[in-house]
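ugh ok so i messed up the first submission bc i forgot one of the chains. this is the corrected input, ALL of the components this time, i swear. 1168 residues overall. if the numbers dont match what u have on ur side tell me asap before i send this to the collaborators (the ones from the other lab, u know who)
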Amino acid sequence: MKFSLTWLKDHLETEASAEEISAALNGVGLEVEGIENPADKLGGFVVAKVLTAARHPNADKLQVLTVDTGSGDPLQVVCGAPNARAGMIGVLGLAGAVVPNGGFELKKSAIRGVESNGMMCSVAELGLGDDHDGIIELPGDAPVGMAFAEYHGADPVFDVAITPNRPDCMGVYGIARDLAAFGLGTLKPIAVQQVPGSFPCPLPIRTDDPQGCPAFYGRAIRGVKNGPSPQWLQDRLKSAGQRPISALVDITNYVMLAYGRPAHAYDLAQLSGAIFARRAVEGETVLALNGKEYTLTSEMTVIADDKGVHDIAGIMGGEHSGCSDATTDVLLEVAYFDPTRIGDTGRNLNLTSDARQRFERGVDPAFLDAGLALLTELIVEICGGEPSEIIRAGTPPAGIREVALEPALVERLGGVAIAEDEQVRILAALGFHSTRVEIGQGRKTWRVQVPTWRPDVDGGPDLVEEVVRIHGLDNIASTPLPRADGVVRPTATAEQLLERRVRRAAAALGLHEAITWSFISEREAEAVGALRQAQGERLWVLQNPISEDMKVMRPSLLPGLLSAVRRNMDRGASSVRLFELGRRYLADGEHPTLVLVLAGERSPRSWQGGKAQGFDAFDAKAACLELLRVAGAPVDNLQVMGEAGDTYHPGQSATLRLGPKVQLASFGMVHPSTLKAFDIGVPVAVAGIHLDAIPAKKASGFARSAYAPPALQAVTRDFAFLVDAALPAGDLVRTVKGADKANIVAVRLFDDFRGAGVPEGQKSLAVEVTLQPGEKSFDDVELKAIAERVTAAAAKLGGVLRG
Amino acid sequence: MDHAATREEALARIAAAQDLGTLEALRVEFLGKQGSISGLLKTLGAMSPEERQVAGPQIHSLRESVTEALATRKSGLETAALDAQLASEVIDLTLPAPETPRGTIHPVSQVMDELAEIFADMGFSVATGPEIEDDWHNFTALNIPESHPARAMHDTFYFPDKDAEGRAMLLRTHTSPVQIRAMLAQGAPIRIIAPGRVYRSDSDATHTPMFHQVEGLVIDRNITLGHLKWTLETFLKAFFEREDIVLRLRPSYFPFTEPSVEVDVGFALVNGKRVLGGSGDEPGHGWMELLGSGMVNRKVIAAGGLDPDEWQGFAFGVGVDRLAMLKYGMDDLRAFFDGDVRWLAHYGFSPLDVPTLSAGVGARA
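and heres the new structure output, hopefully the right one now
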């Protein structure tokens, strides 16, 4: 909402400066988004008198003027305006001044060989209007030498953001009322002059849609003369950012912007039969004033005559029945439309307008007659004409509500004590009338009548807000929240602790934490889950995505990270280590997940290592196990199993499970087809951890179990077995470990050899077995017995001890 | 018998020995079982006491000097050998060592940890809620009526799905539904913050369709706007680690609070960047909008299953990405969600930068 200081002063008696007004507006909750002062751009321009005017010796269309600037010697100025002549008073831009329209700086110069010390300016050049036919002519009493900014008068324009609960401030008058209540001046009452009609309204007016249009007031004015509106009116509209069109249109806009009361003026000659509000017929079309055609539905209210639609009710008039310069008779429409209906219609048509903004917030239902009177008065004054009698079809809602206010509520909610009479004063200044009432047992409270222009107020807290905002939020003292004794208690939940630990552990492993979009494209979702979808897994697909790339809630974090890998590779990265900790969105809910990707080089080529080394599945396995350990998962009990999914390389991927049904994680190399789908040219190792599948740790105290190092030192024995090449090494390790649980405490596989000396189809696996003696050291007999148990266990897997 | 010549010769040969093998051979030659000096010692047994009294010390002296010479020479040779070995083992330590990859924590996570730490000190715990919400929790319970513009398709991402109760499913547009969930789940009194991802159908230089918010909620018996003001001041001073943070409260409107307050914070322009601190009314300063807040609307408290005649409180919401940008100086929101390893290395945080109150929650550049 934009308005000039002059306009504000039409309604508010005040001496306050623009700065004071701006601070007050912010203080009462009318946020000032900017103040623009046209005078700020007029530095260097002075009121000047042309003393002499002579033909330019070298140019027919130029004159050489001598100009009195009120001080010093007259200046010589070359001027091309036809209306420049001796004796006139105009505006001179001195050297150094910046011309507002064009932004160029004036300099002393020679024009066709004649020195010029400035420029006599037109209205357009000063940015004060469109007139550029000649230089400005000021009245004869304009004081020569005065700064033009001062002469023109500073008229700053405020740009104020109005919150949706304040339809009353969608007019300058409402803003003036808030400022007056704040103590910035005195609100001038609206002078409504009822203009009696001298003949019956020539058209019947009615509302056939009392739901959408409960009230439709109107009258005709005949014999008007349309044309440009007067300067004062144009100035006000321009300050609001509106272009003046014609007196009749400008007057309806003015009443809307000044009082928040939209109205419409029809060219009576274009209407036939009756004019009335009704529901649109499904599919009916109307060409609106913005030149666009709209197709309407039966949920929308329109104003129509017997022939067709003339107005999308409360939103925009029709092209064909608007007022033009040829209009001689007008029909005024001042109606009340249902706010919800207006909002729905506007949204469905994707059409916004000043009228819609006001109607959908709720205009003052008690201001129809006043609005009609103001319009009539202005039209008769400016355009002449003779008004008809008024037809009032329907009844606007009463809009009268009463709210109880217990004065103590202001302090209880607002945290600031405000005397009862001051509360009542503030409310009265805003138009609320308070009456003291007994509520039994000697207790008293206030019954507050809410003004019709405040549809937002319906409870005690609303009144507290009114009182507190006018009293000033700055006057509220900061009050510390009560604090529990002692130091802070821990607040983080187990899930939050787990996420924090895992996140920092992943970064400590050398991975960068990324945050990628929660939504991915259908193509990407397919690339990582075609199989799952084929099995009927339902995805969350947005009904109104912002783009096709952001349509499906990710069922996996992998697509976002792979896309990030591609972008990094495209930027020339040779090694990308990323992880993300976020949610997967599945039909059964949102699952906290960590996914890490290792793409490109694990180590670059180097003087030590030679060629660059790429990441492999074991890098992913190592990181995955470390993060699971940090997360508190029982890593020693995890089984390496298959079925990691079709995004993985089928031969280089695995899952980590606690029993066949509980999958905690998967890791491996990404399937080449998946990489291709993401346009990635290097192998990528990946691991994913389902954080919500990790069993919660049992609650425990702080003390650790007692430390009891074994009395005797452990011994190690190496064994090498020939086994089938397809035997998973992990099976051998687990079997060997179980061969003698009393003595074997660890088994570490340290060699996997195929080739010379190993039969085709077999491999040699070597393990280091750690034996822990108890009370006494192992003797040879015992060691031999343990070795036999190890060998026998391996034999069950077809393992043959190598000699 | 004089051993001077023997001594001289032996010492000369020991001194001339060039390696440990030669030296060992000399030791055997002189002092071994069959050694020449050992042989001399053996002659003592056959001597008369008088002879022995003269010859004994001479032979022993000879043996001692040879033994000492052998030891000295051996140590000399060993030192020389070690020196030679070390000289051959010189490496160029200007060569690069293997690089340790350095990982980072995303600024959003870091700031969320900072928020958790600060608010924990004020007695707040961290609450979470689903991002795929129903329209009751996201709108209706928060007193946002059916016709409110925020519900329009152009602001909110909807799913075609309905939940079991027929509620339209959508992506939460703010973290405020966590208010409702927390009240319903834990009752009152309550002090929580709820950070998380939120979504709006908006995309330009300063808006992304996904961003992060943190919600704050305090419900108790005697909570006022004064507590809200103190909480926000205390939080912002702790977060920016500046005592000169100045807030300006402006009355505003949000459906879920009444009264509603927008909070501006004063800043100074330093080299074209906004640096928080000082009043926005000082010369060269300005105010910027940072937070929305207010006293929780009675209807919202009722929707949370609490009696609004008994319980009241405040709520606030602020952008986490915005806080991160203001504190750590990033200027492009879109870069937050790009996964550019160069950006992450530049703006990310060491995993060791765990925010603590004793160290200061912020990580200095």
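quick check: The domain at 39-152 of chain A is CATH 2.40.50.140 (OB fold (Dihydrolipoamide Acetyltransferase, E2P)). that seems consistent at least. Chain A touches chain B through 97 residues (CB under 8 Å).
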